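Researcher: Quick test of sequence recovery. Tokens follow.
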């Protein structure tokens, strides 16, 4: 009952905030925003637009709290995650501020009704939600890069063996790949087209992805370039090493899955089995237990 009252109070608070905002506007702002989104190609509206509108009021304060150094690190994290859903630094800060404000409102409401710990847990979850989502997107993208790298290198090696130069071969392979690894390779090509050296471009690729497979590929590629090893044979060796490392990571993940499966079995099957055994014992001895009670 207390939880139901708390949820109703939180809902009324959010509705009150929306109502105050509607009373303070003329409605022309929404028309202008709809025109801008139509011209920009149709940005999604809904809860995300509500978060952006709320967080924009606290954008300056949020940027001052983060500071220049943390903002640079945050920009690198967003870039490493591949800018999921078109995420930018400003958009991230707006939504982060909106989630914090909503969390504070929920915390105040639950504190008033005597559920401070529950409200604090909800506040911490909302405050950390954007960071957790961004880290999850980055880890998922890094896993996709690791999975795509062996096949990408195999095709690249065949293309170089066919007679194309390294840069032309990378362009050719990227035409038939649409994953995050191809996007990073296109970024390298764009950097080289504006004057960045191959070493600098691929070192930047290694720093952006933070992938062990990509790091091994870049290191071996640069060493082969320095030592004068033929590129086709170097790519073949690199692809073999990357496949071995990928297989080793898969074996490690499989080994880590054993304890997790045991934990799930312990937390789900064992209590149910004990409950069935206990129920059977009680039912079989109802006469004896009836005499005792």
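Model:
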């Amino acid at each position: 009952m207390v939880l139901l009252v708390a949820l109703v109070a939180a809902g009324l608070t959010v509705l009150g905030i929306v109502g105050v905002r509607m009373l303070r506007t003329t409605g022309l702002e929404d028309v202008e925003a709809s025109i801008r989104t139509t011209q920009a190609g149709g940005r999604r509206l809904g809860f995300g637009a509500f978060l952006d509108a709320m967080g924009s009021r606290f954008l300056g304060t949020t940027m001052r709290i983060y500071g220049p150094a943390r903002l640079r690190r945050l920009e690198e994290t967003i870039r490493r995650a591949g800018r999921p859903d078109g995420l930018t630094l400003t958009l991230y800060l707006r939504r982060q501020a909106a989630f914090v404000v909503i969390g504070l409102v929920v915390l105040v409401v639950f504190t008033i009704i005597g559920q401070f710990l529950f409200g604090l847990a909800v506040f911490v979850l909302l405050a950390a939600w954007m960071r957790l989502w961004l880290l999850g997107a980055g880890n998922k993208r890094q896993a996709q890069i690791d999975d795509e790298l062996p096949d990408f290198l195999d095709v690249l090696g065949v293309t170089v063996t066919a007679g194309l130069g390294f840069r032309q071969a990378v362009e050719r392979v990227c035409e038939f790949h649409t994953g995050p690894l191809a996007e990073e390779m296109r970024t390298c090509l764009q950097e080289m087209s504006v004057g960045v050296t191959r070493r600098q471009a691929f070192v930047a690729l290694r720093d952006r992805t933070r992938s062990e497979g990509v790091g091994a590929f870049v290191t071996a590629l640069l060493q082969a370039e320095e030592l004068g090893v033929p590129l086709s044979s170097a790519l073949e060796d690199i692809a073999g090493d990357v496949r071995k490392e990928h297989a080793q990571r898969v074996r490690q993940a499989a080994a880590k899955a054993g304890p997790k499966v045991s934990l799930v079995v312990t937390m789900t099957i064992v209590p149910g089995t004990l409950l069935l055994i206990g129920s059977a014992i009680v039912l079989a001895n109802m006469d004896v237990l009836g005499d005792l009670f």
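The mean pLDDT is 78.
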